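User: Hello, can you help with two protein structures?

Assistant: Certainly.
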Amino acid sequence: MTGTEIELPVTDGVLAGVDFGGRGAGVLLVHGSGHNAAAWTDVAARLVGTCHPVALDLRGHGRTRLGSGGPERYWRDIGDAVTALGWDRPVLVGHSTGGYAVTAATAAGLVEPAALCVVDGVVLDDRAASLLEHAALRTGEAADRLRATFRYGWEASDDQLRAHVERCVREAGEDWLNAGARPGLVGEVTRRSFTRRGSRWVRRPTVEEIASVTALDPGAEILPSVDVYDRLSCPLTVVLAEDGFHAARRDEVRAVVDAAPDRELVEVRSNHNVPMTRPADLAAIVLGLVRNRVAAPAGNTD
C-alpha cells in the first residue's frame, strides 16, 4: 500500500510524513532511530479499515529536512504534529526511540492521547544511569560503531545507493533486525533513509545528529529514564519483543506496567524491529486499543 506524502508544520519548519488514509480515530505512528515513516506501511495497511493512521519522519530522518535540534525538539514536535492534524485524543504508537518520543510528549502535556502504545521502546534506567549511557553515545568509538553498523552519515552516488538498496533487500532474511520483514518493505525503508544533498545521497541520521539528540540536560524535567512513567495518566500498552533490546530486562518492564492501573504488557515473538517483521501482530494490538479506548471518535473523523 502507498499513502499520501504530507507536511506538518512544527516550530521551525515542517515534518514530512505519510497519510495512509482511512476514517475514524487518528493513530500517529512514530518510528525509531534510523528508520522513517515507511517502516509503518504494512501495519498501516491493516489499520485503514478501522482508523486513520499517519506516520511521521522525525527530524534528521526520511524526507524531513530539519536537523535534530537538540535532545528534546524531536519529541516536542509530536504535539505540533497532532495539532496540525486536528486530532483530539489520538492513539500514539512509537517504536524504539519513537516509543520514548510519544511517552515524553505525553508526559510533558503536549498531547493528551486516548492511549499510548510503546513498542520495544520502554526506558528503564534511572536518571543518573541514563545520562551516562547517552554520554557514551557521543564518543568517537560510538560514532565509528554507528557508521560501521548502520552507515549513518554515509554519502553515496546514485549507483552506490541503488546497489546498497538491492543488497539490503537481498540480505534481509539474514539481517539481525530485518529477518522476517517483507523484502519490498526493506527496500522502501532503506531508500527513504537517504536524502539528496547536491550530487550525492546522505544516509540519515548522521552521527552528528545522534550526538545532538543524546546531549541530555541533567536538569531537564523529562529525560529518557524510568521516572518519565510517573508523569503518565493515560492508558499504556508496552509491547515487548521476545528477542528485542529489552528482553533480558523483562522484570523491569513488568514493574513499569504494574506501577499504575490501565497498563498492559504484551509480548510478541519478534526481534526488535516489530513494525516491519510482525506487522499483523502489532496492527491487532493497535486495533484493540482503538476499539477499547476511543469511545468518542468524532474529533478524529475525516
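That covers the first. Now for the second protein you mentioned:
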Amino acid sequence: MAGGYALLLPAALLYGAFLLVPICQTIYLSFTRWDGLTGSPTWTGLDNYRRLVGDDRFSGALLNNFKWVAGSWLAQGFGLALAALLSATWIRGRAAFRTIFFVPATMSLVVVGIVWDFVYNPNWGLLNNALRTVEAGPLATGWLSDESTAMPAIIATANWTYFGFAMVIFMAGLQDLDRSLFEAASIDGAGPMAQFRHITIPGLRSQITLLLIVSFINTLRTFDLVYVMTSGGPGGSTEVVAYYIYSLAFMTRQVGYGAAAAVILTLLTLIITIVFLRLRERD
C-alpha cells in the first residue's frame, strides 16, 4: 500500500502545484483589489461579485459564449451526418475521407485563426473572391469587421475544427449499434429516416451527451480564436468571458475583478458538466 502511494506522490505534487494552488490563489484574489504589480492585494470581500451582477460587459460576453455553444451543435449535426455517410459500405475511400475530415481537429487553434483570418479578408480573402467568382459579389463583406457577421464567422471557424472530432465519436457509436434492429425495422416497413430517428439517435444517446459536455466546456473556456481573429471586436460583438477575464487582468490591471469573473466561469462550467453527467448516468 505504501509503495502505491509513493508512486502516486510525484503526480500528486505536480497536480497540486500547477492546478490546486493556482485555483486557491484565484479564489483568494477574487475577494481582493489588486493591480497585479505593486503592493499587496486589498481585501474587499464580496465587492467584486456584486459588481459582476450589474456588469453589462460580463453578461454580454457570457451571452456570446452561449451563442457559441448553440453554434457548436451545428458541427455535431454535420459530424453525425458525415459519420452515417462514411459508415455506408458503398462509399469508396472511406478511410481517406475520415482522415481528411479529422485533420482540422488536430490543428492548433492559433494557426487556424490566422489562416481563416486570411480567408475572411474583405479585399483579397478566399471567401469574398469565391463570392465574386460566382457573381454573388453583393454578399461579399468585411466578415470580421461587421458586428452582424463577426460572431457567426468565428463560430464557423470553430466548427471547422470540431466537426471531425464529432464525426469520429459518432462513427465509434455507430459501429456498436445492433444491426439486427435495423433489419427488423426494415422488415416492418420502416424507411431509412424512420430507422435513423427511432434506432440510430437513441442508440447514440451516450455519444451525444459526451459531445454536449465537451462542446459546453470548450466553448465556455474559448479564447484562442477570439484573441487571434477579432480581439473581442467589433464593438464587443465577439467578446467571450475568457477574453474579458484576460483584458481585465492583463490590460486594465483589475486582477481581483478578473479573478472573480474566472471563478464564476469555472463554477458555471462545473455545474453544467455535473448536470450533463447526471443525465448521462441516468440514461
